[in-house]
Design goal:
Blueprint lengths: L5 E3 L3 E4 L6 H5 L2 H10 L3 E3 L4 E4 L2 H9 L4 E2 L28 H12 L2 H25 L1 E3 L1 H17 L9 H10 L6 H6 L3 H11 L10 H10 L7 H12 L2 H16 L1 H9 L4 H12 L4 E6 L3 E3 L2 E3 L4 E5 H4 L34 H18 E6 L4 E3 L6 E4 L1 E6 L2
Parallel strand pairs: 2-3, 4-10
Antiparallel strand pairs: 1-2, 3-4, 5-7, 6-14, 7-10, 8-9, 11-14, 12-13
Helix pairs in contact: 5-6, 5-16, 6-12, 7-9, 10-11, 12-14, 12-16, 14-16
């Protein structure tokens, strides 16, 4: 545990918690509770950054981009002082006006109408995959479902070629590890980065994408003058990241929850219209994206803690999503819970651009399972996947019992 009760520098609580350690990843909840109880903002002495873990303050920060900027990086690195390891994202790591132009394009490409057009195709693919997995009986819920399903439907919707789509997973692992410190996790994830980054650079280009699909629609905005030819590939890259990792970890979280809480699975089977709610609650409960940084653009006061301009603040989205100040019985997975306002996908202008895709894919997968499966059983010890930003499993051995 940390030393969150120790006070230094006047009114600021201090903690030696390491949110990028294996011990934290294995069981983050006691550490998150400690940070929430320590104060509205806590100094993390290991990294010389601030931590904010209460729902009220995390959500307020997400909506106040003028005070808590993303343009200096949403990871530990400060782009005002060091060069990003890759060309920075003009969505995630930019503020208005540049961010607004890119976001407008993606909001149009990923509109509710576009999602509705994809629903039948995505639902058929989910049915086919669940049928195949039922025949196998026992399988890895992560590799064979949570990863396999998004990798089968999302790249087609984007208009990507079929070759080397498996590179999307190590690329996402690399990106989300890079938001943390340059620790062993980061160095291991970039060991074989060259072929992945070379492949990705090609996938973002207009001539590599099918004439119909999200990618082509993004590049078409160059023709109308809404974005530049240099910006279009970077927006495609942002969608490549946002469209896979949040979905993989969200579906994995939902499977893990419904297998561990069979009474909730029974509730879902009795009322399949709760499929979207079951996915949403899994995102709140497990918070696949655990943390993001912001940088203060001026001196601020969070609660009773004073923070100078130019300070990095680590927002604990996972801790906010289990804050008992906001949520009733936050450590229970309840698919009837009203989850509106959770920060599992962020909030404000930088809310995850892939959330609509994640929600659609999560809903159709869970709906397919309710039609065909009587029980989801964990048959061997799950294995945690360690990442500086993401929370998810590497393996989830499960068995599907068919409905007779």
């Amino acid at each position: 545990m940390g030393e969150a009760s120790l006070k230094v520098g006047g009114n600021a609580p201090v903690s030696n918690i390491d949110p990028f350690s294996t011990a934290y990843f294995d069981d983050p909840y006691p550490f998150q509770e400690e940070l929430r109880e320590a104060g509205p903002a806590v100094w993390l002495s290991r990294y010389n950054v601030w931590a904010v873990a209460r729902f009220e303050h995390v959500r307020a920060m997400l909506f106040d981009w003028k005070t808590y900027c993303s343009g200096r990086g949403v990871g530990l690195a400060d782009f005002a002082k060091e060069t990003p390891w890759r060309p920075r994202s003009i969505l995630l790591e930019a503020d208005p006006p540049q961010h607004g132009r890119a976001r407008t394009i993606l909001n149009r490409v990923l509109s509710p109408v576009a999602m509705k057009d994809l629903q039948d195709r995505f639902a058929r693919a989910a049915d086919d995959l669940v049928d195949t997995l039922l025949e196998r009986g026992t399988f890895d819920g992560i590799a064979d479902l949570a990863e396999a399903y998004p990798l089968s439907v999302f790249p087609d919707a984007l208009g990507m070629p079929r070759e080397n789509r498996h590179f999307l997973l190590p690329y996402g692992n690399m990106v989300f590890n890079a938001f943390g410190p340059r620790n062993e996790l980061f160095h291991k994830s970039v060991e074989n980065a060259a072929p992945v980054l070379d492949w990705l650079a090609g996938q973002m280009q207009r001539d590599q994408l099918a004439p119909q699909g999200f990618g082509a629609e993004i590049h078409a905005a160059v023709d109308t003058g809404e974005i530049t030819a240099e910006e279009a590939p970077l927006i495609v890259r942002s969608l490549l990241t946002a469209g896979v990792d949040t979905t993989v970890n969200g579906i994995g979280a939902a499977l893990y929850c419904l297998a561990r809480f069979p009474e909730q699975w029974d509730h879902l089977r009795a009322d399949p219209s709760l499929a979207r709610a079951a996915f949403e609650e899994a995102v709140r409960f497990e918070s696949p994206v655990q943390t993001f940084f912001r940088t203060t653009t001026r001196a601020v006061r969070i609660g009773d803690v004073d923070i100078d301009e130019g300070q990095k603040i680590l927002m604990f989205l996972g801790a906010a999503n289990r804050d008992p100040r906001h949520w009733e019985q936050p450590d229970q997975y309840d698919i009837t819970r009203r989850t509106v306002g959770h920060v599992g996908f962020g909030a404000g202008i930088h809310m995850c651009v892939g959330q609509m895709l994640a929600r659609l894919e999560g809903e159709v997968v869970l709906a397919a399972l309710t039609r065909k499966v009587s029980r989801i059983e964990i048959v061997d010890e799950p294995q945690r996947r360690y990442n500086n930003t993401l929370r998810g499993l590497a393996k989830l051995p499960i068995r599907l019992q068919p409905i007779h």
